[in-house]
Amino acid sequence: MWYGNDEFWFYSSKLIKFIAMKKIKLKINNIKCDSCVLLIEDRLKDKEGIVKIKVSAESGNAIIFFDEEKINENEIIKDIESVNNFKAVVIEDNNTDEATEQILEKSDSQESIVVSENAPFIFSRPVIVIAVSFIIMLVFMFIQGNKFSLINSTSIENQQETQKQQPQALADNQQLPSAEIVKSDKPILEAYIVSNCPFGLQMQRVLADVIKNAPLARENIKVRYMGTVSNGKITSMHGDKEAQENLKQICIRDEQNNKYWDYVSCYMKKGDTQGCLDSTGINITKLDSCVSDSKKGLAYAEQDFVLNRKYSIKGSPTLIMGGAKVSEFNFGGRTSEALKTVICSGFNKEPGFCSTKLTTVSAKSSFSETY
């Protein structure tokens, strides 16, 4: 099929528009973990005009490609700052560090990029060079009175679909199909989280719902915590407030286990520590003793942290089943049915609760009154 003048200018203008796509580099303060990065990328990826997003948890830097006809820098910054009280400032190209530049270089890899569902095309640096050369060639041929055959619209649409990808949940989760989970008579699903992480709270919410609707599954679920003990003090990725909450939850888990799920089910609603301690009947004297006695609270926490290092756990949440990382996204995501299926995949002989159908709706992240 041969195209005339109108088609020539149509496709040329589209290529020029994509090449002229604007880039912004930001410094985002208070990013402490991969989960925070996912929260930001999730918020922006569906925004009209956002083409390409990459955020680095290590440096706190972000690179965003966008169509300024549909969204501007101030709107992007406002959206970022609406997530978990982050603060974003524009940085100049000559102020970016090597880590930021590596993000851009890696952005051509599908595994290192979040692509907006609204983005019709994604251009890497080499592709931009090729596109510019292509336009120059088209202009020359047009001046000479020639016509150039372009790819038909059907193949372009197919190419669009293949370039779309879903954001990855946690890159360090090894994804194992059900058949590869080590089976036993009493499998234990361990969920590694931190207490104020939006996705850690989401995982606790899912597991609490599993236990609510399939109570016998409680014996096959254990929540562990991420962090370190440094100079006799517990630390966590989101600061001391989270570290102290982690320690309280660890003490309740190990010394008042029958109250653990009641307490965390309350805490995940508003983060009201004192209100939840009171309403769930926690023995405060026993809890205070555990938290203040390094031979109790810190010793319990260190048992979790030793396993953190053993399994090289970096993201909240991370699931361990049968001594290996497993991804909930191989089973349907962060839903009660998916997590029940993960647990049941570890049994030599499935118990009765495995036949109970649970919700396939994804739980809410962060603090929430509802599932």
Automatic annotation (TrEMBL):
Keywords: Glycoprotein, Membrane, Metal-binding, Secreted, Signal, Transmembrane, Transmembrane helix. One of its GO terms (molecular function) is oxidoreductase activity, acting on a sulfur group of donors, disulfide as acceptor. SUPFAM superfamilies: HMA, heavy metal-associated domain, Thioredoxin-like. PROSITE patterns: HMA_2. Pfam families: GILT (PF03227), HMA (PF00403). Residues 22-88 form the HMA domain. The chain crosses the membrane at residues 122-143. The keyword Glycoprotein applies. The keyword Phosphoprotein does not apply. It is found in: Secreted. GO terms for cellular component: extracellular region. Signal peptide: none annotated. This is HMA domain-containing protein.
